[in-house]
């Protein structure tokens, strides 16, 4: 049984304060070194094409963390949830990085607009002319409409993430409950826009890497991984903040327990969706669909698929099943870190077979660029949140969240 | 109360105390726990956080029960499907292996969820001693507030440490009121009408089962019962029948002008026909390498084994089933290990796969040309392996045989 000491909540540190410049400096440094290492590896022999694929995988990874954060915030308002007010801001901050992620997207957009088929075969005008299937899909898959769509995606994401972040911070000052009402009202259209943009963004960014192939469930697949990634990130982020004396009373084991429950649920949801996609294609046995899994079941990719099956689903599922695993913070931290790595293996498994369909081309840069890009994301989160309180102090449901207790 | 009947005082059920709020209830529960009582319970209009430790209740065993039920569902479903599909009634479906894990996962998932839910639902009932038809606490009018705004604690009279006076003082601290509860009707037997009704219901429930058993063990001249008429009588035409729907009076439609039949575009060379200058090819145009023979084996197992059997003996599941049903029109598949078949040139075997023979349909549409040659190669290897002599074994490895 626990009791939140309201006096302690009132008096404890809620701002990043002097921690912000430190985090930004270290993460930005790591990020630049990580991404630059990819450029160096590309120059000394691995080739630009490999770097492009590594970069795309790492970008899809951080994009999923930001979108997962947006989902967390929007679904909180949509359901008028009370328990997660104390842990909501990390979602708002993650989503608020989306406008800046557009800068990281520019290299990919540049490659497409230059008409290079190195990353997306369909972007090459010669391929689009001669390849029958790609030719038939050209009205959708062409550099111009790709660019227009991505500008639209980022505009929508920017509007939604700014809206929820700004209103929420505004409430820290004014305490106006009408702001909560307004966010709850607009969460419904936001959720619809979120679902549509995430689905089509995943089609463009990941599915069209193999433009012959298609799967209607693909957006849901990317979504399930995105939420797994974000929840793991949120759990680790709050543990990090508490270690530095921030929000030590406001965020309790009850909140970790519920974040853990959601993580557990989405680990299973990922398995459910991944298998749904696999089984329908396996059973239908139509070559134009099975080829995607054919590549991912032959050579060393078969090993990666097994790692995913066990590492992303069959091992963390019993691992997170018990109540104790979610309430012992060391164990929960272990699974959160584990799932952050597995989420990258998942994205790697989606992206890299398009670079080499026979052997998993594991190169040091696949790791360094990923760590670099994730560090850039962390730096962005810290930068966006450098001034604001990390607890929505005047949210009308804050007292509910503080008193929240799993029976 | 009936007049004149000798009436003993009803036995004491327990002592009940009412408290004003959850905090007082928790404090009282902690006192009762510390006084060493085991048989007592708390009653509140809503779940009170922290009541479990205050009452000294150990964490429930329910999760372990659910886990056990879930595991039974998981492995039970796996075992059931393995036994049904691969052991008891092996039947090949679209070339998939008899025991095929991906196809089994949905049933495994559903049964795991179902049995877990059963475990949670019935487990919670049983662990809470439910269903319980009557509780003497309801004799107290005050107790009705337990679903509204009253917080109660009751100590059972059967607790070893129970002493009425002591318990009353213990509970009295901070209580709104303390009352003794008597068991007005200690007879916990169910009324006989309950058993009669239950027996009748049970017998009625057996009727459909009995009817089904009767139908399974007898014959009838009555037409069958149509439950799904839409399915039994579909608005469709049989081939070559007349129809008033179209102006030309035919049910079948002619191909669109300009339609080209698949056979018309096939390229006709020795590799596609198995023939050169009117003679069957004696050598496969596709080399019979180990990997090609393995591909041939895979294709054979998908397309051929259902009838000809995995070893070519003509004993595939379709053939066995037809024999079992004594199908009059059934032409049994050829035993591919016969000397006659073994003597056929590869080109002729290829031709049979391509165009079919007797009852066997043509497989040109399903199997690409190269794969057909691989099947021929595998078949030749199969025939040789089934008719091998010691001469076929390399001299230096013969002693490995026993």
Give a verbal description of the structure.
Chain A is an all-alpha fold. Chain A has helices spanning 6-11, 19-46, 48-78, 89-96, 98-113, 125-130, 132-137, 143-174, 177-205, 218-243, 253-284, 287-297, 301-314, 316-321, 323-327, 329-351, 364-384, 398-403. Chain A has one domain (6-403). In chain A, helix 2 runs antiparallel to helix 17. Helices cover 43% and strands 7% of the residues of chain B. Chain B contains 13 helices and 6 strands. Chain B has helices at 22-34, 51-55, 62-88, 101-127, 164-172, 192-216, 229-232, 270-273, 290-308, 317-325, 339-342, 346-355, 369-386, and strands at 12-19, 40-43, 151-156, 177-182, 275-276, 279-280. In chain B, helix 3 (62-88) runs antiparallel to helix 4 (101-127), helix 9 crosses helix 13 and helix 12 crosses helix 13. The chains are: A mainly alpha (407), B alpha+beta (402). At the A-B interface, helix 11 of A face helix 4 of B.
Put the structure in a nutshell.
The complex is a heterodimer of chains A (407) and B (402). Chain A is mainly alpha-helical.
Radius of gyration of chain A: 21 Å
In which range does the helix fraction of chain B lie? Answer: 40-55%
| Distance from first to last alpha carbon of chain A | 9 Å
Mean pLDDT of chain A: 94
**Helix-strand makeup class of chain B:** alpha+beta
Strand content of chain B: 5-15%
Head-to-tail CA distance between termini of chain B: 94 Å
Q: What is the molecular shape of chain B?
A: elongated
- Taking pLDDT < 50 over at least 5 consecutive residues as the criterion, the unreliable ranges of chain A are none
Total helical segments of chain B: 13
Radius of gyration of chain B: 39 Å
Which outline of chain A best applies? Answer: globular
Strands of chain B, total number: 6
Largest interface between protein chains, with number of residues from each side: A-B, 13 and 13 residues
Q: Could you tell me the strand content of chain A as a percent range? A: under 5%
Instruction: Please state the structural category of chain A.
Output: mainly alpha
């Amino acid at each position: 049984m626990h009791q939140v000491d309201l006096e302690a909540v009132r008096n404890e540190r809620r701002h990043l304060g002097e921690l912000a410049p430190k985090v930004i400096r270290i993460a930005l440094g790591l990020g630049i070194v990580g991404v630059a290492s990819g450029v160096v590896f590309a120059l000394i022999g691995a080739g630009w094409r490999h770097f492009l694929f590594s970069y795309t995988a790492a970008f899809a990874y951080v994009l999923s963390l930001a979108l997962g954060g947006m989902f967390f915030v929007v679904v909180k308002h949509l359901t008028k949830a009370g328990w997660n007010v104390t842990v909501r801001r990390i979602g708002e901050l993650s989503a608020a990085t989306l406008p800046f992620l557009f800068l990281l997207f520019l290299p990919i957009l540049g490659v497409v607009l230059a008409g290079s088929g190195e990353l997306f075969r369909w972007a090459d005008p010669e391929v689009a002319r001669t390849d029958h299937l790609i030719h038939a899909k050209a009205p959708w898959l062409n550099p111009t409409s790709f660019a227009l769509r991505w500008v639209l995606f980022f505009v929508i994401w920017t509007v939604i993430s700014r809206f929820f972040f700004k209103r929420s911070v505004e409430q820290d000052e004014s305490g106006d409950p009408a702001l909560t009402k307004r966010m709850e009202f607009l969460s419904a259209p936001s959720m619809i826009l979120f679902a549509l943009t995430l689905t089509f963004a995943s089609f463009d960014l990941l599915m069209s890497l193999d433009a012959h192939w298609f799967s209607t469930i693909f957006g849901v697949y990317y979504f399930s991984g995105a939420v797994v990634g974000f929840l793991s990130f949120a759990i680790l982020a709050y543990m990090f903040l508490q270690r530095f004396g921030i929000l030590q009373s406001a965020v309790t084991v009850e909140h970790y327990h519920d974040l853990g429950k959601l993580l557990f649920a989405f680990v299973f949801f990922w398995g459910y969706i991944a298998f749904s996609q696999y089984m329908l294609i396996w059973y239908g046995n139509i070559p134009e669909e099975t080829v995607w899994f054919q590549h991912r079941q032959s050579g060393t990719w078969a090993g990666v698929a097994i790692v995913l099956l066990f590492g992303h689903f069959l091992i963390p599922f019993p691992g997170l099943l018990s109540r104790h695993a979610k309430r012992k913070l060391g164990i929960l931290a272990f699974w959160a870190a584990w799932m952050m790595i597995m989420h990258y293996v998942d994205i790697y498994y989606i992206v890299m077979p398009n670079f080499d369909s026979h052997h998993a081309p594991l190169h040091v840069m696949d790791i360094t660029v990923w760590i670099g890009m994730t560090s850039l994301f962390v730096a962005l989160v810290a930068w966006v949140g450098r001034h604001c309180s990390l607890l929505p102090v005047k949210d009308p449901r804050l007292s509910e969240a503080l008193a929240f207790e799993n029976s | 109360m009936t007049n004149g009947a000798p009436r003993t005082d009803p036995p004491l059920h327990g002592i009940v105390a009412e408290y004003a709020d959850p905090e007082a209830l928790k404090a009282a529960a902690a006192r009762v726990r510390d006084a060493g009582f085991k048989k007592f319970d708390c009653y509140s209009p809503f779940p009170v956080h922290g009541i479990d430790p205050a009452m000294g209740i150990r964490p429930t065993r329910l999760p372990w029960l659910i886990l056990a039920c879930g595991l039974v569902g998981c492995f039970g479903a796996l075992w059931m499907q393995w036994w049904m599909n691969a052991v008891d009634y092996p039947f090949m479906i679209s070339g998939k292996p008899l025991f095929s894990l991906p196809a089994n996962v949905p049933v495994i998932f559903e049964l795991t969820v179902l049995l877990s839910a059963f475990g949670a639902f019935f487990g919670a009932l049983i662990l809470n001693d439910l269903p319980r038809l009557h509780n003497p606490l309801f004799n107290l009018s005050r107790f009705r507030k337990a679903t509204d705004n009253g917080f109660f604690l009751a100590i059972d009279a059967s607790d070893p440490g129970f002493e009425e006076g002591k318990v009353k003082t213990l509970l009295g601290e901070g209580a709104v009121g303390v009352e003794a509860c008597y068991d007005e009707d200690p007879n916990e037997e169910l009324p006989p009408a309950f058993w009669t009704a239950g027996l009748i219901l049970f017998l009625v429930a057996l009727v459909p089962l009995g009817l089904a058993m009767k139908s399974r063990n007898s014959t009838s001249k009555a037409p069958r019962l149509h439950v799904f008429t839409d399915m039994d009588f579909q608005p469709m035409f049989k081939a070559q029948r007349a129809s008033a729907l179209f102006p030309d009076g035919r049910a079948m439609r002619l191909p669109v002008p300009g339609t080209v039949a698949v056979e018309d575009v096939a390229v006709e060379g020795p590799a596609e026909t198995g023939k050169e200058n009117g003679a069957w090819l004696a050598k496969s145009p596709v080399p019979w390498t180990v990997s090609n023979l393995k591909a041939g084996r895979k294709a054979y197992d998908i397309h051929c084994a259902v009838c000809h059997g995995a070893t070519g003996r003509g004993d595939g599941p379709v053939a066995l089933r037809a024999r079992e049903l004594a199908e009059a029109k059934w032409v049994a598949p050829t035993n591919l290990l016969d000397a006659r078949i073994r003597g056929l040139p590869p080109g002729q075997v290829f031709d049979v796969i391509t165009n079919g023979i007797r009852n066997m349909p043509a497989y040109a549409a399903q199997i690409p040309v190269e794969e057909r040659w691989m099947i021929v190669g595998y078949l030749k290897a199969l025939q040789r392996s089934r008719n091998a002599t010691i001469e076929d074994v390399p001299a230096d490895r013969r002693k490995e045989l026993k």
